[in-house]
Amino acid sequence: MAQPLxxxxxxxFHLKDFDPDxxxxxxxxxxxxxxxxxxxxxxxxxxxxLYAQGKHALLxxxxxxxxxxxxxxxxxxxxxxxxxxxxxxxxxxxTEEELAHDFLWRVHKAVPRRGMIGIFNRSHYEDxxxxxxRSLVPKAVWRKRYTQINNFERLLADxxxxxxxxxxxxxxxxxxxxxxxxxETPEKxxxxxxxxxxxxxxxxxxxxxxxxxxxxxxxxxAPWYVIPANRKWYRNLVVSxxxxxxxxxxxxxxxxxxxxIESFVIPE
Length: 268
Ligand code: AMP
Ligand code: MG
Fold this sequence. Notes:
The chain has 268 residues and is an alpha/beta fold. It has a single domain, classed as 3-Layer(aba) Sandwich (Rossmann fold). It has helices spanning 29-53, 70-76, 96-99, 105-108, 130-133, 139-142, 145-158, 172-184, 194-201, 203-216, 232-248, and strands at 57-64, 86-90, 117-121, 161-169, 224-228. A five-stranded parallel beta sheet has the order 2-3-1-4-5, sandwiched between helices. The termini are far apart. The relative contact order is 0.21. Magnesium ion binds at residues 66, 195-196, 199. Adenosine monophosphate is lined by residues 90-94, 122, 126-127, 130-131, 136.
């Protein structure tokens, strides 16, 4: 059965209608791998034009539960890009200075300039996710943020920033497995954060908060994609495909060469 990646703006997302195990027509990693490799090559070529043209910026927002695959997606998909044209920004617990400003202050500063690709490892959506679930500010404060986020993203879109937002959707069982693996594998233990277990207990509250964020902030200029992410290889394939589709909608092309380029003589 097919599964949509996104919904028309204004429609409500019900996560129970999305299967994190979904792998489309593919059954095994091997089958999807060649398509993914081809996608990564195409992405590299598209980025080169984005950079050369310097007209558009691309902002990629990654959100997921802990162990949802944000780091892996950056490594395996965004690894296709030339590092010169990319800037990754992780959003952690806000510093004292950040908290002394409005919640978009630190975010706006990290928005990519034209020609660049910005990757947000977590984002302003934390301010309607963890902040809401953990009641870090009163409801009267966070409930206004959906509109504030939409206005902010509109501002960016009107100023040359193409926005694409991914929710890497894993199941609660898959998270348990990944956390256990982090706990048991020496090379992964550095990622094991006991605090993640507290968030896991609040899983259902997070899913409610995600459904609201996806539903209220899914716009034509900044769409949300729900990526079935239990299988890392399918996640990588789909994310790479959405990025290609997004970049191909822009009028990317190399800038015009200097006039009379053929008349120049290269000195011996
Ligand atoms: P990690 O991405 O695993 O390094 O963890 C970063 C942590 O910072 C996560 O637990 C996030 O929920 C938390 N975080 C990010 N943004 C905010 C925010 N605006 N308010 C509170 N916590 C945040
Ligand atoms: Mg956490």
